From TrEMBL:
GO term, biological process aspect, one: proteolysis
Family: Belongs to the peptidase C69 family. Secernin subfamily.
Entry's Gene Ontology molecular function annotations: cysteine-type exopeptidase activity; dipeptidase activity
Record's protein name: Secernin 3
Superkingdom field: Eukaryota
Chain intervals for the UniProt region annotation (Disordered): 322-345
Annotated InterPro entries: Peptidase_C69 (IPR005322)
Length: 418
């Protein structure tokens, strides 16, 4: 399958406004897939404990950080998310010279979640993901289906001070530090000659395969990709469109600007069809460590008809019940072999209500516009409230323990009035 999904963005000062890091991603997945938004508190773990990822078990660490995740409901891992240290990660499917048709191992989405649970900085997340990749490998179906859709992964990772681009091919990888400006990734390799970290055998492996002569300047994208860097930069790709949308707002990139980019249909970034935008995320992370980050998630498909709802890490944050899908435990068809013999209904409560409203918006123009205006007004009011927290900090943490759930209830209220 040709590259066809997902875009991830980050803007750092001076591209962003107000000494903030702005992170955003559209998760473009099969049109019948449900994406949930879930919260897991920080936890200590016993020695020898294992963690059950999507397909394999791996060793657990002594402590995992609190995380908020947007994830396909059938997977253990996540498409995107953030942790209590304001590390944000999103991944992309990439295809290159190395076959992605390996045995079941860690999915790229598992690596996103593991990176968030185990790393307190963006650079540490690079090291965590790279170490897990080298130890366990990546592989297995990336759709809840028997079609065998597989890919390797690239990751855009940010924290309060910088971002990292991590790109993988099998167990090999390269990483580039981004210390300012903006960066976006789509479904092609983008690291060229600036490589700040790498797998120790990455170059020799490429030379042994005949992909690199061992003498010319090493260009990761050219060596490991099917496509040359010229093709990656070619007009018409979502990567190029995304880069252009960021450049148009350079110096003035805000959360609102990032949401506009994620809602852009003309560029293809807001995707429709068999693959569509099933979930979206925008994070605002001040460079000042005394200030909290605010992480917005839709938990529903189609950002243009969804509400970005805020989450702030505070002690005793509540479980996100309205955006958590049903659990089927060991009876889940994903856990049984052969896998994917059936598909259970994974729709969470917000998804069910949103599906009905989305149908109305699509079918009745005037009524749909009125509903959309109400959703946008709710979003605008919520973001105004969050601006106070971003500027002044969290003064009453107890008022934020149910922040995301409260925003969901307000969204449902707009639906009811419609």
């Amino acid at each position: 399958m040709l590259p066809s999904s997902c875009d991830t963005f980050v803007a750092l000062p001076p591209s962003s406004e107000g000494q903030r890091v702005i992170f955003g991603k559209n998760s473009d997945r099969p049109c019948d897939e449900v994406q949930e938004v879930v919260y897991f508190a920080a936890r200590d773990h016993a020695t020898g404990e294992k963690v059950e990822c999507t397909y394999i078990q791996i060793e657990q660490v002594a402590h995992t950080y609190a995380v908020v995740l947007s994830k396909p409901a059938w997977m253990w891992g996540a498409e995107m998310g953030a942790n209590e240290h304001q590390v944000c990660i999103g991944n992309e499917a990439v295809w290159g010279r190395e076959s992605a048709d390996g045995d079941e191992a860690l999915l790229g989405m598992d690596l996103v979640r593991l990176g968030l649970e185990r790393a307190d900085t963006a650079e540490n997340a690079v090291d965590v993901i790279a170490g897990l990749l080298e130890k366990y490998g990546q592989g297995g179906p990336c759709m809840e289906d028997q079609c065998g859709f597989t890919y390797h992964n690239s990751f855009l990772i940010s924290d309060r001070k910088e971002a990292w681009l991590l790109e993988t091919s099998g167990r090999h990888w390269a990483a580039e530090r981004v210390e300012g400006g903006h960066r976006n990734i789509s479904n092609q390799y983008g690291i060229t000659t600036k490589i700040d970290k790498e797998h120790p055998e990455m170059r020799e492996y490429a030379r042994s395969k005949g992909w690199w002569d061992g003498k010319s300047e090493f260009n990761f994208a050219t060596v490991y990709s099917f496509l040359t860097t010229a093709r990656i930069e070619s007009a018409g790709t979502r990567y190029c469109e995304g880069k252009s949308l960021l450049e148009k707002r350079n110096g003035h990139i805000t959360a609102e600007a990032m949401m506009d980019i994620l809602r852009d249909k003309e560029s293809g970034i807001n995707m429709e069809g068999m693959f569509l935008t099933t979930g979206s995320m925008v994070s605002v992370v001040p460079t000042d460590p005394a200030l909290p980050g605010v992480h917005y998630f839709t938990a529903t498909p189609g950002p243009e008809r969804s509400v970005f709802k805020p989450f702030v890490f505070v002690e005793n944050a509540h479980e996100l019940k309205e955006t958590t899908s049903p659990s089927f435990g060991p009876d889940d068809p994903v856990k049984k072999k052969p896998r994917f013999q059936s598909k259970p209904d994974r729709k969470h409560p917000l998804f069910v209500k949103h599906e009905l409203i989305a149908a109305i918006i699509e079918s009745y123009k005037d009524r749909g516009e009125k509903i959309t205006q109400g959703l946008r007004q709710l979003e605008k009011e919520t973001m105004t409230e969050m601006e106070k927290i971003l500027e002044e900090g969290v003064r009453q943490p107890d008022l934020l323990v149910n922040l995301f759930n409260g925003s969901v209830q307000k969204e449902l209220s707009v639906y009811s009035k419609a």
